[in-house]
Input
Amino acid sequence: MKINQLSWMIGGPQGSGVDSGANIFSRACAYGGLYVFGKREYHSNIKGEHSNYVVRVSSNLIRSHLDEIDFLVTFDPETLFRHIHKVVPGGVIIYDVNQENITVDKIPTIDKQANKRIKKFLSEKGVGYSVGDVVNYARDNGILVYGIPYVKLLEGLAEKLGNPQIAKMDVMINVMAVSASLALLKYDFNLVKEAIKYVFKAKKKVADLNIESAKFVYDYVLENFEETNYKLQPVGRDAVDLIIIQGYQASALGKIAGGCRFQSYYPITPASDESVYLEDNAVFDLIGENGSEEKGSIVVVQTEDEIAAITMAIGAGLAGVRASTATSGPGFSLMAEGLGWAGMNEVPVVVTLYQRGGPSTGLPTRHSQEDLLFAVYAGHGEFPRIVYASGDIEEIFYDVAKVFNFAEKYQTPVIHLIDKAMANSIATVKKFDLSRVKIERGALVDVFSDGVYKRFKFTETGISPRVKLGTENAIFWNTGDEHDELGHITEDHEIRTMMVDKRMRKLEIALQEIEDEDKAIVYGDEDSDYAIISWGSTKGAILDAMDMLRSEGYRLKFVQVKLLHPFPKDRVLNLIGNSKFLIDIEHNKTAQFGQIVKREILRDIDYHVLKYNGRPMSLSEVYSALKSILENKANKIQVLNNGD
Amino acid sequence: MAIKIDEIKKLTLEEYKTDVHNDWCPGCGDFGILQSVQLALFELGIPRHKAVVFSGIGCSGKTPHYVNVYGIHTLHGRAVPFAIGAKLANPDLNVIVVGGDGDGLGIGVGHFVSSGRRNVNLTYIVYNNAVYGLTKGQASPTLKLGMKTKSLPKPNINDAVNPIALALVSGYTFIARGYAYDVKHLKEIIKKAILHKGLAFIDVLQPCPTYNDINTKDWYSGKDRIDPVTGKPIPRIYKLEENGYDPYVHNPDDPNEIQQKWIQVVERSLEWGDKIPIGIFYVNEHVSSYEERIQGTIEHYLEKPPAHQKISLSDGRTNVKIDRLLAEFTTRVI
Ligand SMILES: Cc1ncc(C[n+]2csc(CCOP(=O)(O)OP(=O)(O)O)c2C)c(N)n1
Ligand code: SF4
Ligand SMILES: [Mg+2]
Output
């Protein structure tokens, strides 16, 4: 019996409630004190294409997903066909009994390549192409299969409630499937009920009806089906206060807490969720002067394009406001010129860059880390910028205030790199602690009375006192042209050199001032011969894989670099220490981070573990890739390709 | 816009000028526009630190460096979104945007149109010289089809955009045209535009003596058309207000009136050649400004706009209380 150790997947056509189903499941688990980590996969489509959600549950902290599935929860044949090969022996499949005759070829959303792949798998096993064939195959291989008569159950519920309309309400099937799985897991129905209530909180009637149908299925399953090898049970967790949250929400909350009061954006996946969240929560509570209750707010503007988005944010930055924009690759491409203007005029602005698969439109809804070098180099000419990457949802929240601090202290644009995997994952994390959120505004002055104000005054550090537009006695000029201390155009060759040096000097200061812990973090065994180097959302799978490998006696260390530009060479060298082998893990083809590290620390990377198929690395993949390296069986480059 | 003139010490006109060397070509129409902007600020008594001039890129883009108020010389075509960002962050600022016709109606035309939908309270002046001055005279979006200025190798094969009509259909609530050499007239328009609540657009006919040998000062003043009776030129330019033209929308609830106003704007905007109108084409004071619309969802917006909000406590910690927002993510059953 596996207790509180589960890899659970729900799938279905987009628009059928896969998301809300997974949400209900995750919350129900979290309400029981369990840790969850959920990964969402979806197409760039609104209705019909396949989407799925894998949720891992445990009584211990988890940070990544597995390829292997214990529970496959379906209500359409496509999900079954696409994912059957991942279900472990002893695992569970829930499917719709009425669909047994449907074959792979009858499903238009299974494209040619997937059709070929599925049939290849089935024919190799000597299995036919219908749902019934697949179910029999699963049963023969020790998987427990549970056929749920969704339609009949709806009819039963309609009769029970005396409301014939309900028989046709197949929109509830997602919740019924989730509830069936939780019944098989013997999970407390009260927690399921609370989760449904939460997910449909805006619509009480809908919530009530879904609770009725969930309960109906739950009881049906308990009465009619045999036990599984799995169980989920609540654990007491009074000591740690957990929240369950997605990456984009953490970023939005980080902006509110970090003092961002202006956000402009143009809609793009996976970045716009953040802006929509901010717009929805534009007014929030503040602690006033004497501890009194006050209200604060953020202005969110949906612009005509990303050029307007970044330039508006810069305009707000000129007015002294912490301002940002959130975008993804195609939008960031349009922002390059604005970024350079902010660098040239030393205006603090934050670009939250949610990476997705590129180039061009690429994979709009899929994961990648392909924009690192672009973030470091975007824009013509040379100007200072800071590029900073968070590694998980919790980090995102605390990093947001930091990137605004960097922007204001070094008066320059900051690119905060997030990615689709973090944006759309859901996880239980420690409740955010606001006392850890510090606001540092650098050389911003409210009053100026010191003679002639020079916005670009030459100083030792390259940082000049900054005022907001509207400050008395401190008129200044900005221009994208090279300029003098006042901000007027100049082409003088001497001033040019001095100004370039002044601007770039700020990066040296940043490298001196930014705390070591904010530059790069080390995990694991510091004396290990093997040092993993990585950045961004690979962190979760790496740490989880290291835990597994440690229990097998392997020693590994992991250096997570957060400050990617300017590159904290000394810190990274220090953390790598005497390790003999460097293993670079990242989500792109050309090992972009590896290139930077190699160039900076003048040392070759021994192994690259790369993935660029649009799907985040699973714990399973990272574990095997590392193991083959540790066993000295790996090629220099390993390309991972699991997905669905 | 609320300017309390009695509260402030009146400055001299000189104090609105900088000592930066002006490198426009001799005789350029830009000088007249610059003077009009300085005069408007001076006559309205706007404190220098309360005004910001944003500009795009071009000869016109240099304007802010010559005005002694905050001056932000931005990117080609992007002055308007920069300005909107600053204005929404701090609505107390008086924001004027200036730029070329290539800047605003070519590369920046998306912002030109989109801004009309917002009606942010600012004044946008386009220097209409029908050429790309700073890149040596290529055709701008306002150069008429078939025209060949001396800077062009071949006649222009693009049709011209109609800035007045475009502003109208885009939603601008104050639409006017001035003439760079009629400073007295232009400065009055700019003053009215600044005082207008909402987005004001001023199309300024600006001779570029260096590259545009068609729409010259002499051409506008009709030097080629001598009245046989008086022996004087017959000017092409005339003033709308001298013809009893009424640009104001009086009753926004009367669809007939709105329709009639729109028709008259389009009719006048089509006049070119022998008769070219300047003056105020259209004013609709009844449209809510973007700031008022934000106020609709953020009650304290105008009183506590982003630029006036505190973001930390005295010890540097955030002053945000996030509990209410975090409740949504709690794992405790409520
Ligand atoms: C993105 C970009 N493209 C091209 C240019 C080159 N450029 C500089 S000024 C200008 C045209 C200016 O014409 P206009 O806006 O009409 O201003 P004018 O000089 O006539 O006042 C161009 C194309 C630029 N600065 N930026
Ligand atoms: S090129 Fe034309 S617009 Fe530019 S400064 Fe000279 S005259 Fe004026
Ligand atoms: Mg021009």
